[in-house]
């Protein structure tokens, strides 16, 4: 997705284009030193064969392979694109130095600076299993991907499925406790030191995380004003700044059938 910005006075938020967002926050006074992004592409196998699509109307997950990150959990999924229904299987990791699907080949090398190069190198040292997983994914053949698909669709034929690049994801790479580095697979909010720019990196937030992320942005970007907004925020989010009331927990448990 293209980068999007929203500004009010001297404060700006930046979403999408996550590698660009980290660089922008750094230029504006970098509050989270050393935070950087590493791009990973996602590929799927896709079919529009009518009988295969008609026989599957759900999203089915398996377990991630040992040593593989949570985002690699294989799944078979029905998708409708421009009115046409497809069956998709994946994801398979791929690599491009672009921060956006149609970005520049210089995006990743251009983002490396003396201030963050050790963070990137540290991530490679600290995550050998992840590094091994990425290399194994990059050298996979079409036959390897087809064998993975046949765990879900035993009768799958190579001629019915085509490989596609689904998108580009920039993972958060950051220092931890002043030593070592990890690659984050969730959503990360990075703010400049003065709070004037808040950038969203990592996974695209879904409905379950969006509200918490925006409350985090308000607290970081407007620390001197958020207390005055607390009554209004409490009207919108009754549990803001406090534990959820028992009736909310009870209603949630009932809705999700956890009781």
Map the helices and strands.
Layout: E1 4-8, E2 11-15, H1 18-27, E3 36-47, H2 50-54, E4 60-61, E5 75-81, E6 84-94, H3 107-111, H4 117-126, H5 128-138, H6 142-149, E7 162-175, E8 181-184, E9 187-191, E10 197-202, H7 207-221, H8 226-236, H9 246-255
Parallel strand pairs: 2-10
Antiparallel strand pairs: 1-2, 3-6, 3-7, 4-5, 5-6, 7-8, 9-10
Main β-sheet, in a few words?
A: 6 strands, antiparallel
N- to C-terminal distance: 40 Å
If helices are DSSP runs of H or I spanning 4 or more residues, what is the number of helices? 9
Using only C-alpha atoms, the radius of gyration works out to 21 Å
Query: What's the average pLDDT?
Result: 79
Strand content: 25-35%
Please give the order of strands in the largest beta sheet. 4-5-6-3-7-8
Uncertain runs are: none
Structural class: alpha+beta
Percent helix: 25-40%
Order of helices and strands: EEHEHEEEHHHHEEEEHHH
Count of β-strands: 10
Silhouette: globular
């Amino acid at each position: 997705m293209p980068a999007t910005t929203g500004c009010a006075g001297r404060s700006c938020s930046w979403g999408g284009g996550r590698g660009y967002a980290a660089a922008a926050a750094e230029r504006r006074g970098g509050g989270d030193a050393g935070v950087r992004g590493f791009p990973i592409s996602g590929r799927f196998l896709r079919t529009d064969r009518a009988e295969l699509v008609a026989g599957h109307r759900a999203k089915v997950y398996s377990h991630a392979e040992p040593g593989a990150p949570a985002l690699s959990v294989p799944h078979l999924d029905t998708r409708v694109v421009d009115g046409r229904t497809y069956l998709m299987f994946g994801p398979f990791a791929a690599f491009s130095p672009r921060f956006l699907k149609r970005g520049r080949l210089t995006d990743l090398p251009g983002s490396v600076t003396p201030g963050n190069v050790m963070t990137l190198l540290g991530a490679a040292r600290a995550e050998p299993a992840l590094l091994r997983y990425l290399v194994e994914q990059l050298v996979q053949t079409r036959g390897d991907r087809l064998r993975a698909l046949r765990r879900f669709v035993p009768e799958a034929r190579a001629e019915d499925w085509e490989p596609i690049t689904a998108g580009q994801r920039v993972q958060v790479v950051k220092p931890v406790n002043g030593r070592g580095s990890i690659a984050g697979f969730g959503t990360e909010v990075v703010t400049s030191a003065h709070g004037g720019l808040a950038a969203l990196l990592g996974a695209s937030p879904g409905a379950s995380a969006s509200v918490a992320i925006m409350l985090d942005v308000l607290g970081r970007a407007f620390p001197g004003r958020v207390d005055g907004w607390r009554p209004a925020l409490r009207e919108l989010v009754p549990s803001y700044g406090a534990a959820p009331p028992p009736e909310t927990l009870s209603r949630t448990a009932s809705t999700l059938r956890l009781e």
